[in-house]
Write a structure and sequence with these properties.
This protein has 143 residues and is mainly α. It contains 3 helices and 3 strands, in the order βααββα.
Length: 143
């Protein structure tokens, strides 16, 4: 088996051990799958009128919506990380954190950015915002 590792967005691994906790893509997707399964189970119980009370039945749509909103937000953030628009450190959590040196099943592992990479990314965002502001022209004075 081959272990896949995404080190970062076109940068070599950091020296001196910075960023030794990696984000396991497999663990992240597994948790999202569990959340979607839970929402589907609640929906099925609601449809079969098998929830324990009327109060539980009334709260079920709110719970399902809440799970779906959270999954959507997490998937959006994951897409941003995979396209190098966001630091994988922002996804790092207890459920997906693995040590740099831990071997295991094949997995895509995302290395958090170094301080230099974060600074470069922020400088790019600032330059992009300034260019957009120049294209829009000056803001007219208010009354």
């Amino acid at each position: 088996m081959t272990e896949l590792t995404v080190i970062d967005c076109a940068q070599p691994p950091p020296p001196n051990g910075e960023g030794t906790q990696l984000v396991s893509l497999s663990a992240e997707l597994s948790l999202l799958e569990d959340a979607l399964t839970a929402a589907a189970n609640i929906a099925e119980l609601l449809a079969m009128k098998s929830l324990p009370s009327e109060e539980a039945a009334a709260q079920a749509p709110i719970a399902i919506n809440g799970v779906l909103v959270l999954v959507t937000a997490r998937m959006t953030h994951l897409r941003r990380v995979l396209s190098c628009e966001a630091d994988p450190r922002e996804l790092l959590a207890a459920h997906n954190s693995i040590p740099d040196n831990e071997l295991g099943d094949p997995d895509v592992r995302l290395r958090p950015w170094t301080a230099g990479q974060r600074a470069t990314h922020l400088a790019r965002l600032l330059a992009k915002a300034e260019a957009e502001a120049r294209r829009e022209g000056p803001t007219p004075p208010g009354p």
